[in-house]
Structures are given as structure tokens and as C-alpha cells.
Model the fold of this input.
Amino acid sequence: MNSDDTTTKPTAEREALRALVLNESFGELGNNYLGAEIDEAGALIVSGEASGPMCEAMSGELASDTWLTLRARWKDELLLRLLADRFVNARELNDYLDSHAIPSERRTA
Done:
């Protein structure tokens, strides 16, 4: 394959993911939830809730809500830094994309 060839991994057409549960747990020590979503303006919003004895031991409160908003202009920097922290070669990235059925165009030289 030469550098002008482009291949796209075949996947079923689908909408891009706009929200995801990052963590959800329930138990004797408390309940925890952490989720992320992309709003209409393209900002990343991460929100969470915690309650129970573990929350009280860590924060002094029986329940706690938290959220973080990352404006759209900063998402690209976050993405690049996460890629740098997570992947050491293109194969790992390709495998990750395949395992999550994320379409991509790939070139090899």
C-alpha cells in the first residue's frame, strides 16, 4: 500500500457518542456516579454524585455533587494529552478504535 491509499475500517453507521457513564457503584460504603457528556456548544461536562459513609469520611458531608465543564476550545488539548498518556504506538490506538467500533481513516506508507 502506498502513502496515497486510505482505508476505512468498516463499521455500521451510527451516531457519535455524546454521553457516557464513567463510573457507577452502589454498596454499603456508599453510592458513586460519574458521567460525561458533550453539550450543544461542544463543551465537555463531567458530573458526579457521591453519598454514604465513605463520602462522609472523605468530605465531611453525607452527600456531595461535583461537576467540571471544559469548554469546546480546550477539548482538543485534553484529547491530545490523553492520547499521549494512553498509547505508545499506532497499533494500540488502532486496536482501541476497533474494539469500540469507532470509524477511522488509516494510511500506511
User: Anything to note?
Assistant: The chain has a mean pLDDT of 86. Residues 7-106 form one domain. The chain has one domain: 7-106. The chain is about 30% helix and 35% strand.
